[in-house]
Amino acid sequence: MPVVVFPAVAMVILSGTATVLQQFVSGLKSRNEDTRAKSAKDLQHYVTTELRELSQDEATTFYDELNHHIFELVSSSDVNEKKGGILAIVSLIGVEGGNATRISRFANYLRNLLPSSDPVVMEMASKAMGHLSMAGDTFTAEYVEFEVKRALEWLGADRNEGRRHAAVLVLRELAVSAPTFFFQQVQPFFDNIFYAVWDQKQAIREGAVSALRACLILTTQRETKEMQKPQWYKQTFEEAEKGFDETLAKEKGMNRDDRVHGALLILNELVRISSMEGERMREEMEEITQQQLVHDKYCKELMGFGTKPRHITPFTSFQSVQPQQSNALLGLLGYSTPQGFLTFGAAPAPAKSSLVESRYCRELMEERFDQVRPSGSVALVRPGLGLVLRWRSDSPTNITDQYLSDSMGHLLGCLKKEKERTAAFQALGLLVVAVRTEIQPYLSKILEIIKAALPPKDFAHKRQKTIQVDATVFTCISMLSRAMGPSIQPDIKELLEPMLAVGLSPALTAVLYDLSRQIPQLKKDIQDGLLKMLSLVLMHKPLRHPGMPKGLAHQMASPSLTNIPEAGDVGGITLALRTLGSFEFEGHSLTQFVRHCADHFLNSEHKEIRMEAARTCSRLLTPSINLINGHVVSQTAVQVVADVLSKLLVVGITDPDPDIRYCVLASLDERFDAHLAQAENLQALFVALNDEVFEIRELAICTIGRLSSMNPAFVMPFLRKMLIQILTELEHSGVGRNKEQSARMLGHLVSNAPRLIRPYMEPILKALILKLKDPDPNPAVVISVLATIGELAQV
C-alpha cells in the first residue's frame, strides 16, 4: 500500500531540509578551515543516510537547491567560499543516485576555477578533478582527454603563469587518478611538460616535476619485455642535460639557480624510477623527519577535528560494501592548507608514491651517468644539494674516491652553515648508506659535528628548559648505524645520553628503534634510558624497578633527563604514551606503567590522552596475557589484567566521545577473549550493544558473537533475544536506514556466532529473501542483505 504524504506534512519536510541545507552552506562559507571540513563531512553523511529516506521529489528539490548554492560558492570572489564549494563537490562525487548531468555540471564548475590567483584553490580544484575522473561510465574517457589536451595547450602556449601552474597540477592528478586514459596522451605530455620544468617560478617547476613523476611511474608500470626501448627516458635525460649547458641557458634567459634546480629535479625523478631500493631508503629517511613535523603541528592544533572515520570489516563479504565516499573527501582536505596533508583529526602519514623500477631507465642512467657529473657539480647551490647527493648515493659503484672526497668536503662545509644544515644532514645520511664502510676516513669528523648538534654533557646543570635539535640529525645517526652496523657501537653509545637529554620526540623514538635493531648490543641501554625518560614524563618520578629501594631509585636517576614535558603538555604526554605502547621493551616489567596509565590517563579531560591511553593499556597487557595463556600461574598478572580490563570497559561504555568508545572496543581483540568471556565483562559488552553509534554496536556484536563459544551459557540466551530483535526490525521497520543496519548486524552475528545461527537458518533466510522481493527496494538494504546471505551460506 503506497504511503500518503499530506501537503502540510510535505511542507514541514521541505522546510526541514531547507534548514539543514542552509546550515551546510553556512559552514562551507566559514573562514575557519576545520568548520568547512566538518560541514563537508556532515553534508556527505546526510546525503548518504537521511536524504535516502525522503521521496524522490524531495531529494531532487534538495539537490537542485544544493547545486545552486555550490555554483554561488565556486563563483564567489571570496577564496574561502571557493574552497567550501570544492569540498561540497567532492563530498557528492560517487554518492549513490548521482547522474551524468550533475557530474557534467561539477566538471564545468571545477574547470572555471582554473587558473586561480590562490595556489591552494588550484591544488584543491585539481585534486577534485582527479576524483571526478574516477566517477566512471563513458564520462571518464571524454573528460580526461579534454582536460589533458587543454592542460597541454596551456603549457605549449606563450607563458601565462596562472595557466601554466594550473596545467601541471591537473596533469599530475589525472595521471594518478586515470592512468589508463592518460597513457593515451603520454607522448604529447613529454613534448610539452618541460616548458614548465624550465619556468622561472619555483612552484611551477616543482609542480611540473611532480606531474613528470606521476607520468614516469605510469610508463614504468606499463613496461613489458617485448616492447621496444621507449624514448621517453632518453628525452627526459636530454632535457636534464640542457640544464648544465651554459650557452643554451643564456639563450633562454634563465638564471643559473633556476636552471640547475630544474635539471636536478628531472634527474631526481629518473633516479627515483631507476633504483627502487634507493627510493625506499629515501622515503624511510623522510618519514622520520615528517613524523617530527607532524607531531610539532599536532601539538599546536591538538585533534582539532575528531579522528579518522570509523569503519569495521569483520567478515569478508562486507569488505566491498564499506562506505568509500569519505576517502575522496579526506584526500582533498590535504590541500585545504598551504602546508598540506591535513586530514580529519590525528596526524596523517605523509603520502608515498608507488615504488617502481624501470629496467630501461636504469640502463640509460648507468650508460650516461658520467655525462652529467663534470663541471664541479658537488659545489651546487643549496636547493640542489640533497638531490645531487641522492642521485650519487643510488649508484654507489659510480662514487669514486675523488668524488667522495669532493662531496664530503662540500657537505662538511654546509654543515657549518645554519641555513644549509638540514639539507646537508639528510644528504650526508644518504651518502653514508651508499658508500658504507668507505666513509671510515670521515667518520670522526661526522661524529664530531653530530655531537656539536646535540646537548653537551653538562646541559642539565645550566637549567635550560628546552633545546631544539633538527630531526635530520637523528636520521643521520640512524643512517650511520645502518651503514656501519655493530662496529660503530662505542661511538653511538657515547651519543645516547646527549640524545636522550633532548627530550622525547618522534624522531628520537624512530632513531632509538633503528639503533636497537642495527646494534643489538645497545638494546638494553636504549630501553633503560627510554624507560627512565618515560617514567619522568608520565609518572613524574624516577624509574623504580620492582623490589628496588626508593632511595636507590633516586640515586640511579639520570641527571640529564630534565628536558621533560610539563604536566599540562598534552602533546608530550600523548607522545610518551604512544612510545610506551609501541616500543619494544621485552625483558622489562611494565606493570607499574600500565597501572598508572589506567588510573590517571583513561579519565583525562583531554580526548587525545584518553585515546592514546586506551591503546597503550591494551598493548601493555599483552605480556601478562601471554604469561597467563602459557599456563604460568601469576596472581599479579591475573590481577593486573582483570583491573585494567575492567577500567577499559568502563571507558568503552561511558566515555562521552564515541571515538574513544570505539577505540577501546577495537583494541580488545582475540587476545583478550578468555578474560572478556567472564560474566562481569560480558555485561559491559551487552551495554555497548545499545550505543548510539552504529559502528560501535557492530563492533560489540562481533565481539560478543566471538565469545559465544567460550561462555555459551551466559551469552546464548542474550544473543537469541538479540536475533529476534534484529529480525523484527528488518521485517517491520519503515525506515530504510534501520533495515540496512539490521541486515548488517545480522551478517555480523552469522559470521561470528554460527553455532547460534544454525538452528534458525530457515526463518532467517526467509526474512532475508522477503527483503529482496520488496517492491520498492533500497539499494543499500539489498547490498547488505545479499552480503548476509553470502555469510549464511558458509554456516
UniProtKB/TrEMBL annotation:
Keyword presence, Transmembrane helix: no
One GO molecular-function entry: protein serine/threonine kinase activity
GO CC annotation terms, alphabetical: cytoplasm; nucleus; TORC1 complex; TORC2 complex
Alphabetical keyword list: Signal
GO biological process, one term: TORC1 signaling
InterPro entries assigned to the protein according to its UniProt record, in alphabetical order: ARM-like, ARM-type_fold, DDR_Repair_Kinase
Mitochondrion in keyword set: no
Taxonomy, superkingdom: Eukaryota
Protein name: Mechanistic target of rapamycin kinase
